[in-house]
Amino acid sequence: MWPKTDRTYSLQRRLLASMALGFVALLLIISVLLWSYARDASNRTYDLLLAGAALAVLDRVSSGPSGISVDLPYSAMEILALAPQDRIAYRVFSDRDGELTGTPGLPAPRDATLGSVPVFYDAYLDAPFRFVQQGRQLTTPTGRVWVGVQIGQTRAGRAAQQRALFLSGMGGLAVVSLIGLGFVWLAIRVALAPLRQLAETLRVRDPGDLSQIEGAPPREIRGLFDAINGFIRRLHANRQLTETFIADVAHQTRTSLSALQGQLSLAADAASFDEMTTRMHKADSQARRTVRLTNQLLAHAMVTHRADTGTLRPVALKPVVTEVLTDLLRDSDMRGITLTLSADDIAAGEDLVRGDAISLREALSNLLENARRHGPADNTIDVTLEPGGTDTVSLIVEDAGPGIAPADRARATERFTSISRTTAGSGLGLSIVRAVAESHDARLMLGTSARGGLRVELQFKRLLSQAAGRAVTALIVPVVALLLTIAPGAAQAMTQITIASATDTDVMTALIDRFETLNPDVAIAYREYQTVDLHRLILNAAPEDMPDVVISPAMDMQVDLVNRGLALPLAIPEALRLPDWAVWRSELFGFTFEPAVIIYNTDLIAPGTLPQEHRELTNYIRSNEVRLNRRIGIYDLRRSGIGYLFATQDVVQGLQASRMTEVLARANVRRFCCTFEMIAATARGDLALSMNAIGSYALAAAAKDPRLGVHFMSDYNLVMARTAFVPRDAPHADIAERFIAFLLTEGQRVLSTESDLIPILPYADVPVGGHIDLRDFAGSFLPIKLGPGLLTYLDARKKAEFLETWDTSVSFGP
Fold first, then answer.
1. Cα angle 435-317-324, degrees, rounded to a multiple of 5
2. Membrane-spanning residues where (predicted)?
3. What letter would DSSP give residue 706?
């Protein structure tokens, strides 16, 4: 039997789909192997970065009188920065002194023996990490000591390369598979050509031709060939049966009409009135039989038609039965017959079946008519409607007539079969009932009633009762009502987000006001900190005290917080417009352009007289040491994160930084916490010049005060960006993400027109201060790149040594 479906399908497509599934299964097996290969290949590639960084660190480990020292090389972090999306962790230790620097307590490999051969292993911190451990022996005054380094990075870069290798390999396999499937399709079409020939033979055959199909088909479709011929034979037999049925119907109708015509003819030829009356009564009886036969034939045709047209709907049996019995009681032929209905055991809704009300009424009418016709004049007909179990309901009709012998019950439901010759009818009554039962997927059972007559039971499958429906409705309605009650009250309330920032409130006010205007349901609480204090606050904040957004110009400290896994990855399409140096890991975003400049007092230093290169500037300060004594301002590196960032980045640029530190110390420089203090001291004339001032602040001040000038170097000018991120535990991360997206879109326009800060997109097209065009210095700008390299001088040991050297060199206070 073919599966029931409203859609046809293609055997060719099914075969192709089966072959495709085979290809897919094969590709899955290959994909597992390819995925493993891609993982190993990416590990080998990125393990080289870890090994190179480990060797670079070990090369800077030395032993001296004060013990083992570690000078963390900038190159090691830059090597790791070749995987720009990965966070890093490192640790340097010895078997004698323990921890030397880095993150304590990093997981060790299973084989913890420290040796000169690098050991690679996977471990989990707050995310999956890949580590290398390698050591070297040092000769110290107390003997040989093993020093080891552990360096780890997250697996984002490896995973990306693994996916790229895997997808490229699978892409090639997919192309080959598609070509293979094309050849399979051609092979299937050739193999199925005999089926198309068979279809064409049947298509052009005359409808009346039911002869067998001749031919020698392939073995694979021989069964189909024989089945079609078998179906043709059955169809031929069925047509013969149909022709026989039509002939029987014609014969029955013709015989009945002929008998009626004969009685009428005899009545017309009657010699007396009494004889004519007798003939007319017989003609009337024959007319009734003819009408009944016609009605039964029409009913049988109607029931068969409605079964074929799919008219079944949910129907309650009790109203149908009541309606039929009510109509029957009005019939004069029912006089003297007792008719009863028992339906007390059926609760409301328990009589629901899937059926056709018209066909059900016809079946019940035929059962009642048969009971009346075959029973005695004082017949009793009992109609019962009762549950037959948990999922069925039965309609039972019983009478006090002669009944049907068990041996005759099977053929009693056949067409034109009448068991009793004395009360013979059309022989279609029970045949109609059987057709209705079959179309309703019901059981028809014949038996003997309690009164000795015929018992007919129709057992239907019951649908969900009304009581159960009411129970479901009773559960659903309160829930819907509750939702409708809650929904109107879910009005939006004002949401307050917190921004912790190391940027002056005055220059951020325009941005905050504009964001609140665009988002009237959001209020911003802005909290200002120094860069060092802000870094310490975020490191030590409990999850419930974490702000929603963190903003700071100290790029190295921001990278450190993100590298510790404290930032939330954001999906901000606007970040794609940022330069590569101003975004890291989709977590840290730069939004301003801040060159480091020299600001000077125009009364003390004539404009245009400052040197253009850092080497010449060193000579200039040395030559004017007396005049500039205690009149040069720099950042206090212990209090200013941005000052420490600029100072360490100057060191990265070359040896010129150490010479500058030397001449600044000889000139007894003064140290300040922030740019505003240096600008104010320079404007008063307390200072002749200030080094590495934040460009946006300096340019804005110089535009308002003619005593101030701003000087750019020609060899390089460091550029930092104020950066922002959303903490992983931010209470309102969605609104915080919206704020950072605002900083990179509408916020850039606000920065260019309503703030002293310089937007990062694009900085060159923004006039600043009205008297300096940044495009004139575009070739000298050296942006500080966000990434692991900035962690070099945040190493605790390296930072302590750097600051100690700085304090020793620059010993004077403000």
1. 80
2. 15-38, 164-188
3. T
Question: d(Cα 102, Cα 93) in Å, to the nearest integer?
Answer: 9
DSSP 710: E
Amino acid in position 344: D
- In terms of Cβ atoms closer than 10 Å to its own Cβ (0-12, 13-18, 19+), residue 72 is buried
Domain with CATH 3.30.450 in the chain: 13-164
Q: Per-residue pLDDT tens for 72-123?
A: 998 899 999 888 889 999 999 998 888 999 999 899 998 778 888 999 999 9
CB 453 within 8 A of CB 400: yes
Is the per-residue pLDDT at 490 higher than 50? no
pLDDT in tens, 580-629: 999 999 999 999 999 999 999 999 999 999 999 999 999 999 999 999 99
For residue 314, what are the β-bridge partners?
354
- C-alpha–C-alpha distance, residues 93 and 73, integer Å: 16
Q: What is the pTM of this model?
A: 0.62
- Split at pLDDT 50, 70, 90, the class of 245 is low
> 13-164 is classed in which CATH architecture?
2-Layer Sandwich (3.30)
> What are 431-447's pLDDT values in tens digits?
778 888 887 788 888 88
CA dihedral (669, 670, 673, 674) positive or negative: negative
Q: Could you tell me where in the chain the CATH 3.30.565.10 domains are found?
A: 310-467
Give the residues across from 63 on adjacent strands.
68
CA–CA separation, 472 vs 160, rounded Å? 51
Q: How far is CA 763 from CA 225, 506, 589, 591, 778, in A?
A: 81, 21, 16, 10, 10
Q: Are 54 and 134 in contact (CB under 8 A)?
A: yes
DSSP 257-320: HHHHHHHHHHHHT-SSHHHHHHHHHHHHHHHHHHHHHHHHHHHHHHHHHHHHTT--EEEEHHHH
Mean pLDDT in residue range 345-349:
77
Q: How far apart are CA 733 and CA 727, in angstroms?
A: 8
The two three-digit tokens of residue 197, written as one number:
């020939």
Q: What pLDDT sits at residue 812? A: 53
What is the CATH number assigned to the segment(s) 310-467? 3.30.565.10
More confident residue, 608 or 471: 608
Q: How many residues does the chain have?
A: 814
Measured from the Cβ of residue 677, the count of other Cβ atoms closer than 10 Å reads 19
Return the residue matching tokens 């000579």. 619
**In 375-413, which positions are buried (b, 16+ CB within 10 angstroms) versus exposed (e)?**
beeebbbbbbbbbbeeeebbbbbbbbbbbbeeeebeebb
